[in-house]
Input
Amino acid sequence: MNHHLQRWMHALSRVPHDRIRWTLIALLALWASAHLLWLPGGTTSDKTTYDQMVKRRLWAPAHDPSIVVVDIDEASLDQMKSEFGRWPWPRETLAGALDWLEQQGARAVVFDILFADVDTLNPSSDLAFSQAVEASRHSYFPILRLNPANDGISQLHADQLPGFITRLAAAPAPTLALVPPVFKSVVDTTRLGFHNIYPDPDGVNRYYTLWEDKQGWRLWSLPARLAQDMGWRLPEQPKQLIQFNLRQDHYTRIPFSEVWRLSQSREGSKPDPRLQDAVVIVGATATNLFDIKVTPLDITQPGVFVLANVIDNLKNQRFLRELSTQAHLIISWIALLLMGIASKYLSDEQVKWSVLVVPGVLMLVSFLSLQTEWLYFLDLSTSASHSLLFFSVWSVYKTWRSKEIGQLKRLREHVSKTSDAHLHECFAVLQFDKGHWDPHDVMDALPPQAATAAVLSVGVMTEQIHQQPGLIYIVIWGHSAQDVEASLRALPDMCSPTPRRFYVGIAKPLEIHPKPMPDYNHLDEVLQNLDIALTHWTDQRAPHTTTFQTD
Output
């Protein structure tokens, strides 16, 4: 290794480890602040862990049994193709379903189908649907919201769609890029709302936007428009984290073919308890109709069931609440502070276990927050990633530092080859009470005038490792024999806790070796010097022995 690099590495190992610890904590705190406050996405930029938690939940609020999905599924497409051909069917089928559902006492019939074009092949069928809508008092219809960047080139003004738009301030009606229903009867109901769902940057749909404000006007989503008529309380913010059911198809599902059959037969005149006071959503789960969404539950969840979850959340106030960015930041800072404090009292072995244990505990707390009626998702993934990084780096650093300062043979060779003056070498042995010492505290206490020093943590051959008191062997080099001895004698006063006893050897000149020393066995020398220290500790008359008693 290059001598300059070797000298720099050793100098770094002599920096007090508390300074390294809090520098690392400060850097992580700075990164947390930048990530949460300034980077795009902030607290919502990475929800992969959240998705896995949602998918593996053990409990979720029970689905609302009054929400029913009339499903245009694969079986319905197959059963009705002989009479009506391929989808889209003539709209008289939807008219018949709407009439029958309202006759059965449905509280609302929400179409998750966009009526953007007329059926030129079946004008009479379109007329039948339009008449059914005029007679309906409980039907709701979607609008497709296009890219707001195109609002300026649209010819459609906000005040042309009453019910969908609410004026918030005295401002002229802006133009909006929309695909409204083609039927005047549908527009005249004023029961309109956009049914767009906007995925996160990774393409997963976790949030639903209930309304959008535009130049003093508010555009309502289909669930929010329904909530206004139903008397359901709207949340304070438009963007809400969806509380998904345990399964994507939890809601009562009735195939559309069954609804059509009942609407055209005497059997359908009987009351159907599934539909009494129900909120019915008419939509498609057939995969070839391409109404599928990527959600935390599945990469192919039918959009109609996502809409059902949103309506359920809105009706029963079940949207998941999240901590604010400021709260996330404070929690991250507190967690980092606790990590720094805890690492001061953990042994090297415990630090290694903390690399897995601490992030696991934090993620478990996040997971448990999804299993309660609290409806708060406590996202600790940021703190978990910080703890993984901190304890990993801290474990590697402590291992490296112990190795760097503990390489007695390499350090002696380096000193003997690079020194341009006569040096003296002196050793000391310190003994601490069991479980009350840290070799890194001793490294921090090394005298600064000793440019190079070696510290080894050793044990007593006759005792089990878990029963051994802390035994530290130190070697330092300096220009004056008196100075190196005096530096080592002052060392116990610099240590915390104070060693129970210590021994300082006699300084001796260091032999200069311009080449490596292959025959030098530093372990034999360490054991020999340890034996000297242990012998002196049993002989209180020894001139270089001092004993400290600790509480």
Summary: The CA atoms of residues 157 and 175 lie 4 Å apart. Confidence is low (pLDDT under 50) at residues 460-467, 542-551. DSSP finds 18 helices and 22 strands in the chain. The first strand starts at residue 67 and ends at 72.
